[in-house]
Design goal:
heterodimer, A: alpha/beta, B: mainly alpha, transmembrane helix (chain B), transmembrane (chain B), ABC_transp_permease (chain B), ABC transporter permease (chain B), membrane (chain B)
């Protein structure tokens, strides 16, 4: 079997007396879509924050490509090739699509204007943004300099995913990407996820939507009470099984009570 | 649960809804979208209309001399409004700009006259002082996480007190400056430009706005300032070091206040610790009328320049028309309210 790309072992995170992550493990294999599900408060967001650098675990070890890593900020995780699409999307509504895609990693003009006067290379940035959006079939957006707030919810999600796909060289984490979307827009985002996967980039998908999870995931990580309860294959289990494991109504095979 | 409903039904329903909405909106909606894209158009229209109106009322209004006089009158507050704009773009507010400016004019005056420091060096020290005051505001806002309004309300009083202490509440007279430190009055010097009489202070103001326009629109720093003002959490998650951006904004604002201080000495002709007492509020007025949103992240830097000019045009026009000064305030007040109301309306687009 191939080696996991991103692993976490015995992760612990406490907030005062609350233990959000209680010796949790996590494995992501190359090229797969791993869904992370769990009841509200099970600690799945905290776990994901730990691997994406938004939260620093108190104990435990995270390895990327077999090497131990510790991310002190989302920026550090991004530099290592882990991109996260947050539920809030982290887009600046008043700025353009292209500005948003390059936020924090703008391209400067070559030569004196870029070096001494910090001038942005807008044509290059616009072209890159347009290319990335068309690659993902999102070019129903006509104008790349359109402010993000004039886009629909699905299009915004698309821009955020495109941004992650454009820069996420190793792992893309999606936090509830379809939660705020209608049926049609969810469809597009799921297609987008499959499209990103087909480029060989593994995806971590956090979602409450069982049909979506069962449709796209290769494996499902079920989180319960701050730790990984089990990992199931969606082809061998039903949605009601997953929900039963999640809520504790039923125990998966091979897990002791 | 069905995730893929009949595509035909789906398409039909959504299209009829969309076309229905399109009909019901129309012109007003298009105006809203237009202003959303070009928020500076509101002050531009107001400026043009007020120019026409006052031109019709008083024949002298449109003389090159009068128009350039308006420019001279707004030069200092306009420069200060540039500093204020930067802070307001980050959803903050800087109540200390006026006090910083007056204090630094005193610092530059006292350093060159009392301590005998060469004037150019005194000016450089004054500029450094501007950076320091900005750094203090910025540190309080970013490190102690105090609201900018309260922070700068505090520092306003502090700088005002320091201003009285350093000046001994005494004015440095024009003749003294002419004799010992004429360079401090540089921005008050006039030159002729085709019948218009401009001061270097006007030129300074225009340069400040052009440089800021470039920095805000053409550099990564500028995009980050907008992003931090728009949604600081989103900006942080997108990898922006929001505290560093905020600090740089307050320091830049402090520096511009120092430039305004130098300019103000030329405008007043002396170094007076009691001058420009209303400059704080006047700078905010110019920014708001100029269409920069008090909620941050929206508006063009050229707006406040136009905002300052609108106030200047109203003052000059009403005075030429022989109207009591109180109506200038009255008109400015309504302009502020209308400007904020328009901003709220434009913002509705995003929801």
């Amino acid at each position: 079997m191939t080696e996991p790309l991103l692993t976490a072992r015995n992760i612990v995170k406490r907030y005062g007396r609350v233990t959000a992550i209680d010796h949790a493990d996590f494995d992501l294999y190359p090229g797969e879509i791993l869904a992370v599900i769990g009841d509200n408060g099970a600690g799945k967001s905290s776990l994901i924050k730990a691997v994406s650098g938004a939260v620093q675990p108190d104990e435990g070890e995270i390895r990327l490509n077999g090497k131990p890593v510790s991310f002190d900020s989302p920026l550090a995780a991004r530099k290592a090739g882990i991109e996260t699409v947050y539920q809030t999307l982290a887009l600046s509504p008043a700025l353009s699509i292209s500005d948003n895609m390059f936020m924090g990693r703008e391209i400067r003009r070559p030569g004196i204007m870029g070096k001494w006067f910090g001038m942005l290379d807008k044509p290059a940035m616009d072209k890159f943004a347009r290319d990335k959006l068309s690659e993902l079939g999102l070019m129903t957006i006509q104008n790349i300099s359109q402010p993000v707030e004039t886009l629909s919810g699905g299009q915004r999600q698309g821009v955020a995913v495109a941004r992650a796909a454009a820069f996420g060289s190793r792992v893309i984490i999606l936090d509830e990407p379809t939660a705020a979307l209608g049926v049609k827009e969810s469809r597009r985002v799921l297609d987008l996820i499959l499209d990103v996967k087909s480029r060989g980039i593994p995806i971590v998908l956090i979602s409450h939507n069982m049909p979506h999870v069962f449709e796209v995931a290769d494996r499902i990580h079920i989180h319960r009470l701050g730790k990984r309860l089990c990992v199931i294959n969606p082809k061998e289990h039903t949605m009601s099984d997953a929900v039963a494991y999640m809520t504790g109504a039923k125990l998966p095979d091979g897990v002791a009570a | 649960m069905s995730d893929a409903p009949d595509p035909v039904v789906e398409r039909n329903s959504s299209e009829t809804v969309a076309s229905f909405e399109h009909h019901s909106r129309g012109l007003l909606d298009r105006v809203q979208h237009f202003l959303h894209r070009f928020p500076t158009m509101v002050p531009v229209i107001v400026l043009v209309l007020s120019l026409i109106a006052f031109g019709l009322i008083s024949p002298n209004f449109f003389s090159a001399f009068n128009l350039s006089l308006i420019m001279q009158q707004v030069a200092v507050v306009g420069t200060l409004a540039a500093a204020q704009s930067l802070v307001i773009l980050t959803a903050g507010i800087d109540l200390s700009v006026g006090a910083v400016m007056v204090m630094i004019s005193v610092v530059m005056g006292r350093l060159s006259l009392d301590l005998g420091i060469p004037v150019p060096i005194a000016i450089v020290l004054g500029m450094g002082c501007g950076l320091l005051t900005g750094a203090l505001n910025g540190m309080l806002v970013t490190r102690l996480k105090l609201p900018p309004f309260i922070t700068t309300l505090g520092t306003w009083n502090i700088f005002l007190a320091l201003n009285y202490y350093l000046s001994g509440r005494e004015t440095i007279r024009s003749q003294t400056l002419d004799a010992e430190a004429p360079l401090l009055k540089f921005f008050g010097e006039r030159f002729n430009l085709g019948g218009a009489v401009l001061t270097y202070g006007v030129v300074l103001m225009l340069i400040v706005f052009i440089v800021l326009w470039y920095a805000l629109n053409k550099t990564a720093w500028g995009r980050r300032v907008y992003a931090v003002g728009d949604d600081p959490e989103a900006a942080a998650l997108a990898g922006i070091q929001t505290k560093r951006v905020l600090l740089s904004v307050y320091m830049a604002a402090g520096f511009i206040c120092a430039l305004a201080a130098w300019s103000s000495i030329g405008r007043v002709g002396s170094v007076s610790p009691t001058s420009f007492f209303e400059a704080n509020l006047e700078s905010i007025t110019a920014v708001v009328i100029g269409g920069i949103s008090l909620f941050g992240g929206r508006g063009s830097i050229m707006g406040p320049l136009i905002g300052a000019l609108i106030v200047g045009v109203f003052n000059s026009g009403l005075r030429l028309a022989g109207v009591d000064v109180l109506w200038q305030l009255f008109a400015t007040g309504w302009l502020i309210i209308v400007a904020v109301a328009v901003d709220q309306w434009i913002r509705k687009i995003s929801s």
